[in-house]
Specification:
With 267 residues, the chain is an alpha/beta fold. It has helices at 16-27, 46-58, 99-106, 129-135, 151-167, 186-201, 205-214, 222-234, 248-252, and strands at 2-3, 38-41, 65-71, 80-82, 87-88, 95-96, 113-114, 140-146, 172-177, 182-184, 240-247, 258-266.
Length: 267
C-alpha cells in the first residue's frame, strides 16, 4: 500500500531533483550533531519553515527508525490513527513504514487505531519526510496523527509510549511535528510563542498544554509535543535545547498575520 504525496507541488517542489537540492541546501548548515531522543520540527511550506526544519534535523544523529507524530488538520478518517503498512510516496524514492514497530505500538497506544484515510491529505508528517530521507536514505518511520486530547489523555498516551518503546529492542527517534502560534501579528506571535517555548525549555509538559489553552496559543502540535515530553520524562529526560525560532514574517516581510516556527531537541 502506497500513500500518494498530497503536498507535492504545494508545500515543496514536485520535481525530485529540485526537491532534493532544496532540502540539502536547508540541511547544509554549520551545526554540531548530537544524539537525542525527541525533537520538535515545523511543517509549513518550505519557503517559510524549511530553514528551521533543516537546521533542526541537521543537528540530530539520525537513527534508522523514526516515530513521526503530528496533529490532525483534516476531517478525514479517524481521530487518532497510525498507517501501519506500505510506504509514503514522495518525488524520488518512497519512504517505507516500519510495519513491525507500527504493529507493536498499536498493541498499547490508547485511542489509536489503524486508518490510512486519516493520513491521506494530512501535511504535518509528509513535509518532514524529505529531510529525513536526505539525511538517511535507509530511514523508515511510523506515521501517527493525534486529534485533540485532554492533558490527562496526553499523559496516558505518553506513559504508554514510554513503556512500548522501552520494550522495543531498537533505537527510535520521536519527532513531534508542530508549528507555533498562527495568524496573529509578528509581535503577538513572538509573545505567545515565548510562553510556549518557556514551558518546553523548562520541560513542563502539563505547563505547555495549559499555557496554550489558557492564552489561546494556536500551537497546532501541542498534543503530540505534550505526549512526547511525558514519554521522555518517563525515561528521566528533562532537557530541551532551542535550535531556532522565527516567523513567516521574517521571510515574507508581512508582519500583520504570521505563523511561528520553532525547532527543538530533547534529551
Amino acid at each position: 500500500m502506497y500513500r500518494e504525496a498530497a503536498m507535492s507541488g504545494r508545500f515543496y517542489p514536485a520535481n525530485a531533483s529540485t526537491l532534493d537540492a532544496m532540502v540539502r541546501q536547508y540541511l547544509e548548515v554549520p551545526v554540531e550533531t548530537s544524539k537525542v531522543r525527541g525533537a520538535v520540527v515545523p511543517h509549513a511550506g518550505y519557503v517559510y519553515s524549511g530553514e528551521v526544519a533543516g537546521r533542526t534535523i541537521a543537528s540530530i544523529e539520525l537513527p534508522q527508525t523514526v516515530l513521526l507524530m503530528g496533529p490532525k488538520h483534516t476531517r478525514l478518517g479517524e481521530h487518532s490513527a497510525i498507517m501501519h503498512r506500505g510506504a509514503w510516496s514522495l518525488p524520488g524514492e518512497a519512504v517505507p513504514i516500519h510495519e513491525a514497530l507500527a504493529d507493536h505500538l498499536l498493541q498499547g497506544l490508547p485511542g489509536v487505531v489503524v486508518d490510512a484515510e486519516a493520513h491521506r491529505e494530512e501535511h504535518a508528517l509528509e513535509v518532514i519526510l524529505p529531510f529525513l530521507r536526505a539525511r538517511r536514505p535507509d530511514v523508515r518511520f511510523v506515521p501517527l496523527i493525534l486529534g485533540f486530547r485532554s492533558y490527562a489523555a496526553c499523559e496516558e498516551l505518553g506513559r504508554a509510549l514510554a513503556k512500548l518503546l522501552e520494550e522495543w529492542d531498537e533505537e527510535v527517534l520521536v519527532i513531534a511535528s508542530s508549528d507555533m502560534n498562527h495568524f496573529d501579528t509578528h509581535d503577538e506571535t513572538l509573545r505567545k510563542d515565548q510562553m510556549a517555548l518557556d514551558k518546553c525549555l523548562s520541560f513542563d509538559p502539563q505547563g505547555l498544554y495549559e499555557v496554550c489553552r489558557e492564552h489561546d496559543i494556536s500551537m497546532c502540535g501541542v498534543v503530540p509535543t505534550t505526549a512526547m515530553m511525558v514519554m521522555l520524562a518517563q525515561e528521566g529526560i528533562n532537557s530541551t535545547r532551542l535550535v531556532q525560532h522565527m516567523t513567516s514574517g521574517d521571510v515574507s516581510g508581512d508582519t500583520r498575520s504570521v505563523v511561528g516556527y520553532a525547532g527543538m531537541l530533547m534529551g
